[in-house]
């Protein structure tokens, strides 16, 4: 679990990251992992998650907020047309988001580890990930502005323990 300015974030065994409000209702689902999500870290500009396969995924908080606003706007207008909306892959099927929550698909991913990601830290443009493979990776993102997770120039260091 992690607390951010948009609400409470949870890493889920169903391969998603979820955002919850104060009334314990799910506001958004971040998809992209194909293995259960083990850990996450949040700051004002990013959501970072690590899974059991060794992937670290990064979502831009600006994209999450835009998707939330767009979804709320759609809910207010009461659009019921099923032909519109986001389609995505779930397993090997193409399905439409009809769950009643915003689904965020845009993210960057890094296959950082050979074992599951056991811990993440996120601060000042630096992501530190630790794994069961006994490695600690440090990603420093340069050339980024607040509110963006796009990897422009990244330096990575890998340490073995």
Tell me briefly what this model is.
With 161 residues, the chain is mainly beta. The chain is built from 1 helix and 15 strands.
Task: Record keyword descriptors for this entry.
elongated; five-stranded mixed sheet; 161 residues
Class computed from helices, strands and strand pairing: mainly beta
- Outline the biggest β-sheet: 5 strands, mixed
Shape: elongated
What amount of the residues lies in strands?
over 45%
Give the helix proportion (percent range): 10-25%
Number of helices: 1
| Strand line-up across the major sheet | 1-2-3-4-10
End-to-end CA span? 26 Å
Rg, nearest Å: 16 Å
What is the average per-residue confidence, as pLDDT, rounded to a whole number? 82
Quantity of strands, as a count: 15
**Poorly predicted regions:** 144-153
- Give, in order, the helices and strands: EEEEEEEHEEEEEEEE
């Amino acid at each position: 679990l992690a607390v951010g300015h948009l609400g409470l974030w949870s890493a889920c065994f169903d391969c998603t990251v979820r955002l919850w409000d104060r009334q314990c209702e799910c506001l958004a689902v971040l998809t992209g992992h194909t293995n259960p999500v083990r850990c996450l870290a949040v700051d004002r500009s990013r959501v970072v998650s690590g899974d059991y396969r060794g992937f670290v995924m990064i979502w831009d908080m600006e994209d999450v907020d835009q998707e939330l606003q767009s979804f709320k706007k759609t809910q207010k207008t009461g659009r019921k047309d099923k032909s519109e909306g986001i389609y995505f892959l779930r397993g090997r099927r193409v399905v439409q988001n009809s769950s009643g929550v915003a689904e965020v698909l845009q993210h960057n991913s890094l296959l950082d580890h050979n074992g599951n990601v056991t811990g993440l830290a996120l601060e000042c443009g630096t992501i530190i990930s630790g794994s069961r493979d006994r490695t600690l990776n440090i990603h420093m993102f340069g050339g980024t502005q607040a509110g963006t997770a796009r990897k422009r120039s990244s330096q990575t260091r890998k340490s073995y323990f």
